[in-house]
Design goal:
207 residues; mainly beta; UDP N-Acetylglucosamine Acyltransferase, domain 1; 2 domains; nine-stranded mixed sheet; 26 strands; globular; N-acetyltransferase; transferase activity; Hexapep
Length: 207
C-alpha cells in the first residue's frame, strides 16, 4: 500500500442475511438481518441494505445507496450512486404479470421478458411507493411516500399521488424549491439556483 492509499472498511453482513456467493458487495457496505442479495447482483461501496430488503438477480446498485427495511428491488433494476429507497418500496419488473400461460401451465423465466426501473444519481424513493417498470427516476428527484410511479420522473422533480404527478421541484438536499418568478427557482436552505424550461429543471450556472 502506498502513502496515497488507505484501507477500505470491510463489508458487514448480518448472520441472518442471505447473500449469494456470486453477488458482488463493495467495501464498507452493511447488510442487515434477513436481507437477501441474489446471484450476480452488485452493490457498490458504502451501501446500507436494511432488514428484510431484497435485491434481485443481476440488479446493480451504485455507491453510497441506502435501501431501507423490506424494500423489494426486482431485476433488472439499476440504481446509480447516492440513491435512497424507503421502507417497503417496490420496483416491479413485469408489465403484464401472469402466474400461468394461456394453456394454464405455470410460467417460467422463458415465458416473459423482465423490464427494469432506472434510478439516477441522488434520487429518493419514499416509503411504500411503487415504481412500475419500465420507468426512469431522474437525478435528485423525490418520490413521495405511497406514490405509484407509472411514467418517467424528471430531474429534481417532486412527485406524489396515484398515479404520481409532479407537485413541485426539489434541490440536491431534498428541500422544496421556492419559485423566484420567470422560471427561476431557489433553494431556501443552500441558496442554490435552478432554471425551469419546458417542464425540465436544471442547475443555474454559478455567477
Amino acid at each position: 500500500m502506498t502513502e496515497c492509499e488507505t484501507a477500505l472498511p470491510p463489508v458487514t453482513i448480518a448472520p441472518t442475511a442471505d447473500v449469494d456467493d456470486r453477488a458482488a458487495i463493495g467495501a464498507g457496505s452493511v447488510i442487515w438481518h434477513l436481507a437477501q442479495v441474489r446471484e450476480h447482483a452488485a452493490l457498490g461501496e458504502g451501501c446500507i441494505l436494511g432488514r428484510g430488503a431484497y435485491i434481485g438477480p443481476g440488479v446493480t446498485v451504485g455507491n453510497n445507496c441506502k435501501i431501507q427495511n423490506y424494500a423489494l428491488i426486482y431485476e433488472p433494476a439499476r440504481l446509480h450512486d447516492g440513491v435512497f429507497v424507503g421502507p417497503a418500496a417496490v420496483f416491479t419488473n413485469d408489465t403484464f404479470p401472469r402466474a400461468v400461460t394461456i394453456d394454464g401451465a405455470r410460467m417460467t423465466a422463458e415465458d416473459w421478458e423482465p423490464v427494469g426501473v432506472l434510478v439516477r444519481t441522488g434520487a429518493s424513493i419514499g416509503a411504500r411507493s411503487v415504481c412500475i417498470a419500465p420507468v426512469t427516476i431522474g437525478r435528485w428527484a423525490m418520490v413521495a411516500a405511497g406514490a405509484v410511479v407509472t411514467r418517467d420522473v424528471p430531474d429534481f422533480a417532486l412527485v406524489a399521488g396515484v398515479p404520481a404527478r409532479r407537485i413541485g421541484w426539489v434541490g440536491r438536499n431534498g428541500t422544496p424549491l421556492t419559485d423566484d418568478g420567470e422560471g427561476r427557482f431557489v433553494c431556501p436552505i443552500t441558496g442554490d439556483r435552478y432554471l425551469e424550461h419546458e417542464g425540465t429543471l436544471s442547475e443555474a450556472a454559478a455567477t
